[in-house]
Each structure stands twice: as structure tokens, then as C-alpha cells.
Amino acid sequence: MRLARIAHPGGVAFASIEGDGDDAQVLEIAEHPFGQPNFTGKRWPLADVRLLAPILPSKVIAVGRNYAKHAAEFGNDVPSEPMLFIKPSTTVIGPNAAIRRPSGIGRVDFEGELAIVIGQPVKNVPAARAASVVLGYTIANDVSARDLQKSDGQWGRAKGFDTFCPIGPWIETSVDASDLSLRAEVDGELKQDGRTSDLVHKIPELVEFVSGVMTLLPGDIILTGTPEGVGPIEGGQSVSITIEGIGTLTNPVEDV
């Protein structure tokens, strides 16, 4: 199932997307998408609604240096345990919303990532049971102010600006995310071309590790890391991240 959050003629709602292309339909879900969704009976063509961020997480937990070649391209070692940092919920935007690049902060990079969406409140989940607490997977862009990341040491400011975590276009609940193609393009030029099978710390391990640190709530997101090939973005450009079996997340960039 593809779970989305939409703006429709009557307001905002969660929805399921059925079909593809011009025939795609959006079916409104009552209340929330966790557990067995209940449908209201309302439906619209996908072209008649606007896709929003598919979920509004209480927190976004990101994993640094989780692809060996990405760590190497910045001269870093791969951590023996997952390296965690948190992006505030105010970084989250949806597909086609603008990444706002603040003036005076130097280089800003895109980072295409697979995102895990948690489906229930959990703490201390063993890796063997991780799949049972995952609602599904979406696409994320861990936008990073690279100069601030280097100068601050701590990553909170560099990763925490408003709009620095686009996610979408929806949550795919049925995909096996262990070995998917991940590609990122800037203005149509291929920049990243990796596979989720190259994750150093795999998805079950990440769920176990993060939930051992903090309680995860429904809708919380774990960003799994980015492959090599990250680079700068400027106002007027557009970033598209495609993950096999999920879809494509596209966002324009604005200088502010």
C-alpha cells in the first residue's frame, strides 16, 4: 500500500494511492494510517490533490556515515556503532515544496536517503522483530549546511534548518528495502547511484539500536544514511531522489 498525506478540496487527510499514472486514484483514510486503515469512501484523481509530507514525525533520527564510500569521500572512518543525530520536526517538508537555502551559511548539500517510518510506540526492539514495528519506507533528503557541519563539530545547526528534511512522496508499506537502487539527480544530472544493500548498519540493526536509546512513536522516522556522490545545491536548481519500489521525491531549491 502507498500511504500519503494530501491536501484535497475539503482539507487535509491521510490517503491510500491506487493505480499509476493518469489512472491513479486517492482514497481518503479516516483519522490515521496506523493499523488497519478505515476508508471514508471519498476518492479523487491523484492529479486533483496535492501531496504533502506523508507523515509528521515527532522526531527524525538520522544515521551518519552509514555507507562506507560516503564516509571515505569526506575522509572519515565508518563508525563501529550507528552514529546518531536528530533533525527537528520543523525540517520536514513534502514533495515539490522548496528547500530554502539560507544566506550566509556557505555550502549546502543534498543527501538522498531511504527513510524508515515507525508504525507503533516501541522501546528496546530486538533486530529480529524490527520488521513488525515498521509501517513502511519513504524517501528523504538530509539537506546539510556543510561548512557549518565542519566548523561546529556538532551537527544540530547544520542539519536543523527549516525545510532541510524533504520526505515523500508517500510511504510504501509492502517493499523489501534490503536491496533497492537509490539514485539522486540535480537538474537531471545523476549524482548518486547506490544500493541499500551497501548500508553498513542494516535496517533491523538500526531499529534495535535507536529504540534502545529512545522511545519511538508512530510516525517517527529513521534516516538510514546516504551513498557517495553528495554535493552542493543552489537556488533555482531541483533535486530528485528515486528509490526503486517507492518512487521519486523532487524538491526545488530557493535562496532566502
UniProtKB/TrEMBL annotation:
Occurrences of domain Fumarylacetoacetase-like C-terminal (ranges): 59-253
Family matches, as Pfam families: FAA_hydrolase (PF01557), Rv2993c-like_N (PF10370)
Signal peptide segment: none
GO biological process, alphabetically ordered: carboxylic acid metabolic process
Keywords attached to this entry: Isomerase, Metal-binding
Entry superkingdom: Bacteria
Start and end residues of each Rv2993c-like N-terminal domain: 1-54
GO molecular function: acetylpyruvate hydrolase activity; isomerase activity; metal ion binding
Name the record gives this protein: 2-hydroxyhepta-2,4-diene-1,7-dioate isomerase
Organism of provenance: Amycolatopsis rifamycinica
